[in-house]
Amino acid sequence: MEENKKDVTIYDIAEELNISPSTVSRALNDHSSIGSKTKKAVKKLAEKWGYRPNSFAASLRTKRSNTFGIIVSWINRPFISSLISGIENTAREAGFHTIITQTQDYTESEITNVKTLYDNRISALIVSLAMETTDYSHFDSIRNSGIPIVFVDRIPPTLGIHKVQINNFSAAFEATEHLIEQGCKRIMYFGGARHQSIYEDRRLGYVAALKKHDLELDKSLMVQGNTLDAEEGYRIASEVLSRDSIPDGIFCANDTAAVSAIQCAKSMGILIPDQLKIIGFNDDPICTIIDPPLSSVHHPAVEMGEAAVRKALAMLENEIDPEAGSTVTLDTHIVVRKSTQSEKTLESDVSIADQSMG
After folding, report:
1. Are 125 and 150 in contact (CB under 8 A)?
2. Does some domain include residue 1?
3. 50: helix, coil or strand?
4. What secondary structure letter does DSSP report for 294?
5. CATH number, domain with residue 44
6. Bridge partners, residue 191, by sequence
7. Residue 328 within any structural domain of the chain
8. Total structural domains in the chain?
9. Three-state DSSP state, 63
10. pLDDT higher than 50, residue 160
């Protein structure tokens, strides 16, 4: 046989070595019934001829492809890329491949991705919902087929699902309270679509912090975005900061919008943090690059991806009931940087640190 022959099969290898196809198959899978000499010969010839296992044919037999499907909004956003990294690494360690799809926050794309992954006979599905999704019936084909499905971060408000999340209410409360502790009294909240529970919970956390500190709840300072991208962040910041009475603090539901708010404020001659303090959400790498560096809520994206895979694996191994629903909630914390701390506050912190070391 020519070495460059395409689509080499186990039958070709079996014919060349004068053994049965089943022996070739078991040798390639390191079955204990096959001797080491035969295994070595089979694998050597398979490598020489460029043999590739027919994973689709295997999936027809097992009804599983040993593959995890992933549906996320925007692959190029730091939080999502970190989430994917956690999923991929943990799945690979367990012997699974991954197929990654993105929706760009459109429900129609999400529906298409679900069908594509289902047709590829995935073993499990991990999803972070598209921003505009309000109906979740397109996931029924997955659940009805007994395929484990785990929702991460953006999750549907339905019962009986498996999910990995953070306490968005608590995280938003702490972020808002941090601004209050830095002297802010007119704090703007810039969040995502309220039908997504994570953004509604963050809004409620913001409201609760204002109420705790007896600050006025000005609804004109509660702004809902659609994309939370850089363009929208800049546009909304420009509109709010052009008013007669501007906020002295901004809590953004992601770092992309927060960075745009910083850039917009600086272009208008507003001093950060002396006149306006800004905190974001996710603790993306850009937080340390923007000037001034951006305070943010650390969002454990990698750990969330790892937890989602472990939960899916537990369902595959029948360790937990796919129908019962379960929740993993991971911790967050505030990462304080210069965008919320004036020079005076920073000097005070340094002084305290110096005293503690003396």
Report:
1. yes
2. no
3. coil
4. P
5. 1.10.260.40
6. 224
7. yes
8. 3
9. coil
10. yes
Q: For the purposes of burial, counting CB atoms within 10 Å of the CB of 356, is it exposed (0-12), middle (13-18) or buried (19 or more)?
A: exposed
Domain containing residue 19: 10-53
Q: How many Cα atoms sit within 13 Å of 78 on the Cβ side?
A: 14
Do 43 and 68 fall within a single domain?
no
Top-confidence range, 26-35, 157-166, 203-212, 346-355: 203-212
> Taken in order 93, 99, 100, 106, is the CA torsion positive or negative?
negative
Token reading at 93:
């360690």
CA nearest to 78, candidates 327, 355, 332, 302? 302
Question: Which distant-in-sequence residues (6+ apart) come within 8 Å of 293 by Cβ?
Answer: 287, 337, 338, 339
Q: Cα–Cα distances in Å, from 8 out to 20, 31, 117?
A: 15, 21, 27
The answer to whether position 154 is within a domain reads yes
SS (H, E, C) 254-288: CHHHHHHHHHHHHHCCCCCCCCCEEEEEECCHHHH
Same domain for 310 and 181: no
- pLDDT tens by residue, 238-277: 999 999 999 999 999 999 999 999 999 999 999 999 999 9
| Inter-CA distances, 35 with 13, 18, 28, 39, 186, Å | 16, 15, 12, 6, 76
Q: Are residues 180 and 324 both part of a single domain?
A: no
* 123 assigned to some structural domain: yes
Check whether 82 has a pLDDT greater than 70: yes
* Confidence (pTM): 0.78
Asked whether residue 339 falls in the same domain as residue 322, the answer is no
- Specify the CATH number for the domain of residue 157: 3.40.50.2300
Helix (H, G, I), strand (E, B) or coil at 355: helix
- Omega prior to 292 cis, within 30 of 0: yes
